[in-house]
Amino acid sequence: MNTPSNTMGIDLIEPTDYINWYKSYYNTIAPSYTFRYQYAEYIQERYNIIKNNKFIKFNEYKCTAIDIKTINEKIEIITSNNEKVYSDYLVYCPGHVMSQNFSYLSNNINFINDPHNINFDLLNKEQIGIIGSGLTSVDVVRYLVSKNYKGIINIYTRNYNLPTVLSVKNNYNPTIFTYTNIFTEYLKGKEIKLTNIIKLFNKELNLINSEHKKAELLKYKNTNKYFNYLMTRSYNADLPLQDILFSTRYYASNIWQILKEEDKKLFNRKILPKWNTWRHPIPRESFEYLIDLSRENKIKYHKINYKPLVDKDIFLINTQKGIMKETCIIDATGGNLNMNQNNDKFVKSLLNKKIAIPNPHGGLKISPNDHTLINNSNYKNIYLIGQLSKGDLFSTNAFWFNTRVANKIANHLIGKLI
Questions:
Q1: What is d(CA 177, CA 111) in angstroms, rounded to the nearest whole number?
Q2: Predicted local confidence at residue 121, as pLDDT
Q3: What is the CATH number of domain 61-98+337-417?
Q4: Could you state, in order of their start, the residue ranges of all structural domains in the chain?
Q5: How far apart are CA 48 and CA 28, in angstroms?
Q6: pLDDT greater at residue 99 or residue 331
Q7: CA distance 260 to 275
Q8: Backbone phi, then psi, for 209, in 5-degree steps?
Q9: Per 3-state DSSP, what percentage of the chain is helix, strand, and coil (rounded to 5)?
Q10: For helices 211-221 and 223-235, what crossing angle results, to 10°?
Q11: What does the pLDDT read at residue 385?
């Protein structure tokens, strides 16, 4: 996970709760960045403590919510076990309910659309293809290495954006590209424009020796040198571009909410791929895996031109260097947030019954003030947390951000119930 362990506590007012739990559970100091399975153990234990609280009655349904109805002020949820659950309020925390990028391949047994459910039979293949080069892709690579996979890993990326690495320390504090300077025009009663934000950003870039300039050249020439170059600068705490982007963490969502619609579309189309690469680096431990595999020529990156085709169970992938052939592909793109293409039954029910509306920038429309779903019936008793609110909030990947949203919703509900 690419969030520091000392900020991963589930309680907003006690962010160090996770590292304290880790020390007592494993009898050792928590790593700077934790693994998903370790964090899952922490979540499970904390959940059990809350569930066993005698002041709160829990009804737990271990099944899937597949349908929803609103009856006057009540909510009726139908489960995969054909149970009906009634509630006054609903907090919808769907996690990773994304639309598939390659739905036309979903029936092919050699296409894996769930990168966290990999068949052990793959480990016998001489090579494996992975589509996507972000955090999910790195997770898959680490999993394959942990299972002693010895073959070649081909990673296909549309924009040829390779992973970046977290700095040991954020040293650079921007002086031009700041919250105050960005909002100056807005405070004067003028609208904030993306072009003006980019101008401020470029002025800041001119003050630094940005890591991206040489890295962007190296990745096309020698990926091993690319990885080593960024790792060296990481250990020297010399990643000023990363420092600049990290400085936006607490106000990026505020900027997003007041940008005009055309600026949001422009950002998603032109800037988002680079933003995701340089704003969301991976921990050094994971980056070292990529360095080792790259040095041994066991991992290769390819710029993909078109979506894969299939010919007699062989995947044909058109890349800049020609046609690649794969017998197995893992989709590690993370999917997309186009809800009109989403196959989740519960999401479909929300949309079909006009309880939710697709956001043109991804996910479902919400009110940023109270995080309730926006709908055509003004029904205000359903709240949304996580990725599906990205179109309105932008910063939904950040753990601290989702913790803050959860705390806000909890306080809002308590105020209604008391």
A1: 43
A2: 74
A3: 3.50.50.60
A4: 5-49, 61-98+337-417, 103-163+283-331, 179-276
A5: 23
A6: 331
A7: 19
A8: -95, 80
A9: 40, 15, 40
A10: 150
A11: 93
Helices (H), 119-239: 135-146, 179-187, 194-205, 211-221, 223-235
Check if 61-98+337-417 and 103-163+283-331 are the same fold. yes
How far is Cα 151 from Cα 122, in angstroms, rounded to an integer? 10
- Cβ-contact 301, 162 below 8 angstroms: yes
Owner of token pair 């737990």: 60
Q: Pairing state of beta strands 111-112 and 322-326?
A: unpaired
pLDDT tens digit sequence for 68-85: 998 887 899 999 999 999
Instruction: Supply the mean pLDDT for the chain.
Output: 90
183-225 residue pLDDT tens: 887 777 778 899 999 999 999 999 999 999 999 999 999 999 9
Which of these, 301, 375, 353, lies nearest to 332 by C-alpha position? 301
CB 337 within 8 A of CB 101: no
pLDDT at residue 89, as a whole number: 93
DSSP 108-141: -TTEES-TTS--GGGGGSSEEEEE--SHHHHHHH
pLDDT tens sequence across 274-325: 999 999 999 888 899 899 999 999 999 999 998 999 998 899 999 998 999 9
**Residues whose CB falls within 8 Å of the CB of residue 25, separated by 6 or more in sequence, listed in order:** 41, 42, 45
pLDDT (tens digit per residue) in 27-75:
999 888 887 778 889 999 998 988 888 778 888 899 999 999 988 878 9
Q: Give 32-97 as a DSSP string.
A: SB--HHHHHHHHHHHHHHHHT-TTS------S-EEEEEEETTEEEEEETTS-EEEES-EEE---S-
Contact by Cβ (8 Å): 183, 323: no
* CATH architecture, range 103-163+283-331: 3-Layer(bba) Sandwich (3.50)
**Dmax (CA) of the chain:** 65
* Mean pLDDT value of segment 374-388: 87
Question: Amino acid identity of 385?
Answer: I
- What is the per-residue pLDDT for 154? 96
Q: Going by C-beta distance under 8 Å and a sequence separation of 6 or more, which residues neighbour residue 165?
A: 230, 231, 234, 239, 281, 282, 283, 284, 287
Coil, helix or strand at residue 383: strand
